[in-house]
Amino acid sequence: MEVVVTGMGLISALGSLNSSWQKLVEGETGIRWQQPLPDFPPYPLGLIGIQPKQLEEIAENVVLAALADAGLSPPLPDCGVAIGSSRGCQGTWESVLSVTSHQSPVTSYPVIHPPWLETLPNRGAVVAARTIVTRAPVLAPMAACATGLWAIARGAELIRSGECDRVVAGAVEAPITPLTLAGFGKMGALAKTGCYPFDKQREGLVLGEGGAVLVLESRELAKQRGAKCYGEILGFGATADGYHVSAPEIEGKSAAIAIKNALDRGNLTPENIDYIHAHGTSTRLNDSNEARLIRHLFPESIPVSSTKGATGHTLGASGAIGVAFCLLALNHQILPPCTGLKAPEFDLNFVREARSASIQNTLCLSFGFGGQNVVLAIAK
Q1: Over the stretch 194-244, which tens digit does the pLDDT of each residue have?
Q2: Known catalytic residue: 145?
Q3: Is-catalytic flag, 296?
């Protein structure tokens, strides 16, 4: 069964769906030097506003935007949900803990004591389910930074299996918290000045917040109601390295299998792909491994870019945002630029500035801690 995308909702440091795309193709970045947490030094961050957002606010925002874009409104009792997050309500837990342990609050989050069931990792999916008033399956995938692609793949499978005709799928993330900053800082993974994917001078990742949700429908349902279609979800591949808690497997064998599976399920070959939206975190290991993988599997002429230099790394939501940009690239026939890239370290056909191109098939890559590899093939 063919699965198409009929609506999208997105919010990032660049703004809403349309403003994010417009600023992206103009080469702008939403990353700013900010200090939202008083007990931490300033960092380059991809904040939506001045202070960190709550997960619930992001989730409701992107779900409602996606429904409006698709020409739908609640209640949608037969609509499935597959919305994930790698951090969930971590910021709320940190805020509560700082108070209950008799310490001064170290975050800008409001001091609240919510029912614990309202702060579990599935919170984004629960918010979506309540927003659309559904009785259909509700999934809350979690696969580190590969969460967004995994959620969209699971949503597409709900339709292909016949369980649902329509699913809202994607991921949301509110990761600007003391623990996240301290953790990545301790690892030496945080950039000090900015995000420069695949650049010789790349320093590390820049945290960003945001999310993206797609309305997935069977082609039959979309045609029946005369809905516009952004594109089609062709196939996915999902594997795990089983190698290290944070470092990717150097030879990239499992990642290569994920790419092969996505291509096979979409009846594609490497030569059929017109653009790759890379994971491109701007960390030393990821960019090196990913560049080697792309060079090994694809023609050297294939255009490649990462958009994290514009939005920051939204962790679990990054893949969903990447898919949204792929769909917009297909609709506008424009390749989005690799914002922040000045001096490439790797011999790939990087998109340095947005440019027109004939794009029929795209590939979106996500690689997460714990060796999570997810790849999604998307067609015009």
Answers
A1: 999 999 999 999 999 999 999 999 999 999 999 999 999 999 999 998 776
A2: yes
A3: no
